[in-house]
Amino acid sequence: MDSIELGGSGLRVGKVCLGTMTFGEQVDEPTAFAILDRALERGVDFIDTAEMYSVPARRETFGATETIIGRWFAARPGARQKIVLATKIAGPARGMDWIRGGSPDLTPEHIVQACNDSLKRLQTEAIDLYQLHWPARNVPMFGGLYFDPANERSVTGILEQLQPFDGLIRAGKVRAIGLSNETPWGVTEFVRIAEANGLPRIATVQNPYALVNRVVDNGLDEVLFRSGVGLLAYSPLGFGSLTGKYDDGGPDPAQPALGRLARFDSMRRQRWARPETLNAARRYNALAREHGLTPTQLALAFCYRSWRVASTILGVTSVAQLDEDLDAWSVQLAPEVLTAIDRIRWEIRDPAQ
C-alpha cells in the first residue's frame, strides 16, 4: 500500500487509515481487538479515534474507544511502535453536558487536560496526530448549510488554541496537530496565525469526503493543496449508504443488522440518511453494478485514487468488512466511470453536505 507524509509533520502513513468510532458501541472489545490485529497484519499503520467515541455519543461510552485501543496496545507489546496514532479533542459540547460540563468554549486548560486524559486512556506517552474535532467558533457543520452571523459568540480564538497545542508538542505529548470538520476560512486562518507567531502548523484536516458529499471539491481542495495540508477523508461509504445495503427501502429500524443508520434513531436524523442522500447513493451504487463493480469498490476507489485525499478513513464492524474495504485498494476506475460519477454529481450535487 502506498504511503504519504502528512503535511510537513514528518508523520508518514499508509493511504488507508482505520477509523474506530464503532468500538465500544456497535463493536465489542474482543471484536475490536480482532479488527485491530487484522489491520496490523494487512499493513495498516494509521489508526484514528477521538475522546468522544464511541458513536452515537453517549455519556456512558465517552472515552470507550480510546480505552479499548489502550487495552489493545497493552495486550500487544510492540504494536504501538508500528502505529501512527491520531485522536481528537471535542470542540464545544453541542449539548453533550458530559464533555467538560457542557462548556460552550474550548479553553487552553481544556486542551491540556483533554490530551492528558486521552494519553491515559490510550496507555501511551504521546499522540502522533492530535486534532480539534470541530471548531469552537460559530460555523455551519454536521449538515448545516449556512453561516449565520446571528450565532456569533465569544470563544477562545485560534491563537489561544494554538498556544497550548504548542506546549503539548514541546512537552513531547503530541507530535503534530490537525483539524476536523473545518472550513476553507478556518484552515487558512490556522495556517496564517501559526506562521505569523512561530506556532505549530496544522498537518491535516479530517472532513467528510464521499460520492454523496464532495463539499471539499468546492474550494477547500485548493486551500489544502496550496497550504500543503493533507485531507483525511472520513465516511467514504456515506455511513453505509454507498455499500448498497439501504438500496431497498432505506434504513429500516426493524433491521438493525443493516448498520448504524438502521440501528440508531439519532443517526437516521443526520445528513447521511436524508432521502436525497439515499437516492443519490442508489444512483452511484447502480453505476458501480453497471461496470461490474460492487458499490463499496466504486466508493472507496474514488477516494483512494483522488489526488485530494492523503488517507481514507475506514469504519468497520467486522474483520470481513475490513478485508473487503482493503481489497478495494486494487480497484482502478476507468475514465468513463469517473466521467459518469461527475455527471451524476452535476445533477444532484452534495446531498449529504
UniProtKB/TrEMBL annotation:
A Pfam family the protein falls into: Aldo_ket_red
Entries under Gene3D superfamilies matching the protein: NADP-dependent oxidoreductase domain
Keywords, alphabetical: Oxidoreductase
Domain NADP-dependent oxidoreductase: 15-344
Entry protein name: Aldo/keto reductase
Lineage: superkingdom: Bacteria
InterPro entries: AKR_Detox_Biosynth, NAD(P)_OxRdtase_dom_sf, NADP_OxRdtase_dom
Source organism per UniProt: Pseudaquabacterium terrae
